Amino acid sequence: MSAPAATTKAFGDRMVPLAVLLKRELTNEKIEKPDILTGLANQTKKGEDFTFVKTECQRYAGDSISTFSVFALFDGHNGSAAAIYAKENLLSNVLSAIPQDLSRDEWLAALPRALVAGFVKTDKDLQDKAQTSGTTVTFVIIDGWVVTVASVGDSRCILESAEGAVYSLSADHRLEANEQEVERITASGGEVGRLNMIGGAEIGPLRCWPGGLCLSRSIGDMDVGEFIVPVPHVKQVKLSNAGGRLIISSDGVWDAVTFEMAVSCSRGLPAEVAAAQIVKEAVQIKGLHDDITCIVVDILPQEKNPPLPPPKKQGKGVFKSMFRRKSCESTSHSDRECSEPDLVEEIFEEGSAMLARRLDTEYPICNMFKLFMCAVCQVEFKPGEGTSVHAGSLQTGRLRPWDGPFLCRSCHAKKEAMEGKRFRGGGNPPALLHLLPSTSCHLAAELPPPSLFQPPGTAAETNSRCRPAVASHLSGGAFGFLLAAGDEEQEK
């Protein structure tokens, strides 16, 4: 992946170095900053959607020259604790993983790895607090014309360029829509399947067992297995100076409307009105069965009125999704056509769940992580105490166990668990694990009457995957808990 192709530089740490000031004076260097206009709308069913909007963020304390904007959406499940905690801590965790005194180019190049470290640290700290709730995260950073999006879960971010093309900047981590994530979980020892009923009928979406979560990635969810990881998909693009519009929405929107529908129903409207219109459209189509939240962000040239996107011809080619055909994602509500980008430049994209790959020093800024500091939680340790992210790697060549970056003991243990190399309680992963009451509520909305489930001790318990475990344990006390949580959505 190449580093950001920016031409301006700015240093932080309270004062801009003299050399940079002289360079600006001699070259008349200017940092190009667009106008950012935002709109936010939501309708609440459970009260588990949270947003974070902050403009003019400083990279370093006292640095008012090089600023950026942050827009984030947190869609919680099984309670709101995880969403609230991520909202309050994620940004600071990301920034703490970026060294001081980087130029703007270097800062942008370091940002994708810092986002990975920040997401994992937030998840680790949350689990240390014994919180069992979870949350999706779509986290957007806008620096000049460069947009960086990190995401876990099924809240999505799309971009409509000034030319009218539509791009997806996030990933869909629903197991139903992501075959690669299904393969990752099963390869690590996890189980993926639907609920089984008497007679062998299957109901509901694909889920990861134990726990029954429909998502493969989230922050939190400590009681649904180590296979649910917080490592985000990260995409970084550079817009043309004509700008564009971002639409960041929870699954309450995308379960009702396609990307193209969201763009079309809000085209030509101011950001605030556009967000309200998208939410209204989703409610009219599917009703209010879940929290529905939408953030619209217009990135515009300075001192210009918001341009009205030109009307687009209907028919084929109206939806341009990812930048490479192999990266195109589709859901039951997403158009499936792909085409090459026009004036939106891709800088970086990575979606691997492997920390060794995401924190590898082959990326720019090789000295990003200090030798005796954990690359995830930023805890300092003594020489010899850290463990390389490459420890135990089966790869050959330049990767060696003593190559950094390094992890502290607890972060290394988490890395091993996420990769299926360690399981709670030690030993091999059990074939079937009981459903914990705190996560059983994820299933309640789609459960038929208890009599339709295979009772324990029947032939169904020898069926593949772990779906019989669901029937077995739902016939006991856990099922009563599920009925009490009957208003929960099937999605999480």
TrEMBL record:
GO terms for molecular function: metal ion binding; protein serine/threonine phosphatase activity. The keyword Ion transport does not apply. SUPFAM superfamilies: PP2C-like (SSF81606). Residues 30-299 form the PPM-type phosphatase domain. It catalyses: O-phospho-L-seryl-[protein] + H2O = L-seryl-[protein] + phosphate; O-phospho-L-threonyl-[protein] + H2O = L-threonyl-[protein] + phosphate. Keywords: Hydrolase, Magnesium, Manganese, Metal-binding, Protein phosphatase. CDD domains: PP2Cc (cd00143). InterPro entries: PP2C (IPR015655), PPM-type-like_dom_sf (IPR036457), PPM-type_phosphatase-like_dom (IPR001932). It is an enzyme of class 3 (hydrolase). Its cofactor is Mn(2+); Mg(2+). Its EC number is 3.1.3.16. The keyword Zinc does not apply. PANTHER family: PROTEIN PHOSPHATASE. Belongs to the PP2C family. This is protein-serine/threonine phosphatase. It comes from Spirodela intermedia (Intermediate duckweed).
